[in-house]
Amino acid sequence: MTMKPGLKDLLWLAVGAVVTLAITLAVFYLHEEQNPAAQLAFRAKRVELAEQMRLALASASEAEKSAVMATTDQDSQSFADQARAQVAAVEQGRKELEGLLQTGGTKTEQDLLAQFSQAFAEFQRIDKDLLDMAVRNTNLKAYALAFGPAAEVLKEMDAALARVIAQSVNSTAPDARQVIQLADDTRIRALRIQTLLAPHIAEESDRKMDELEAQMAKEDLELRKDLESLVSLLKPGGSPDIETATSLYAKFGGIKAQIIKLSRENTNVRSLAISLNQKRKVMLLCQDALVALEQAVQQEPVAKAPVSPR
Question: d(Cα 157, Cα 160) in Å, to the nearest integer?
């Protein structure tokens, strides 16, 4: 007669199976841990990831600087996209390395990766703000307006005033000398305003930009007074060149307002300053953490291969 196993026997069988499985897994794990080839491969994978992250960081930094220094929106955007792609590659490597260190890394390695992750989070924040500014190129656009349309309008205005002076030199009118003086003053003031635009575009400080704008406003006020006096002396409709000069200066005023607005946004100047200061510092922190992590991994002891009996 065959006896069926009782509940107690079944429980003991289950416990025995679990213990056997645990021992088998432990032996397998210890075998893998002591396998020099597996250890070396695991170490090489972590070192490779850290090195790839360092290279991607360097590439991201170079692309970011190119985006800042590019002279066209298209080039800036292209380099910015390259920088973002490299930053994404670093993040992918960071996650993969984090997973490896959680399963087989030392506490020191995990701490170093955490140190890198903290610095890299700041790197990403700065990089986003920097690239968003760099692609707008407001300073470059301001320069293009200042040395293009604005300069051309003032050149035409100056030519109109030069004709007024030439007509007044041979004039017998009692106000001829005064007309010449006012026209000369107008030309000089226009030139002064023009020469203040470039420093304003290049300036980083809001306070100094305020000072430059105050100087421009002062010259603008006097210039408008001179033009009004010229119109009064030459009578309305008496000199087409004065009307031309007045119209051109009004056009210049509109362009100047655009230049100052773009200059105030200061995206090229600000992005360059961030790139050379905050970004460079956090970049060094990231690289130093990765170098330290590589060294920690490379210094891990590797078990010797068992000697086969002869």
Answer: 5
Indicate if 154 and 238 belong to the same structural domain.
yes
Count of residues in the chain? 310
User: 102 with 220, same domain?
Assistant: no
pLDDT tens digits for range 97-121 = 999 999 888 899 999 999 999 999 9
**Residue 226 and residue 147 share a domain:** yes
Query: How many angstroms separate the CA atoms of 264 and 270, rounded?
Result: 10
Q: 97 and 151 share a domain?
A: no
Q: Mean pLDDT, to the nearest integer, of 56-77?
A: 95
Taking a C-beta distance cutoff of 8 angstroms, is the pair 168, 161 a contact?
no
Say if pTM beats, i.e. exceeds, 0.85. no
Tokens matching residue 14: 């289950």
What pLDDT score was predicted for residue 21? 44
- 29/113 same-domain check: yes
> Per the structure, how many domains does the chain have?
2
Q: How far is CA 274 from the centre of its chain?
A: 7
Range of the domain at 288: 19-135+269-298
- Taking the C-alpha atoms of residue 282 and residue 121, their distance in angstroms, rounded to an integer, is 10
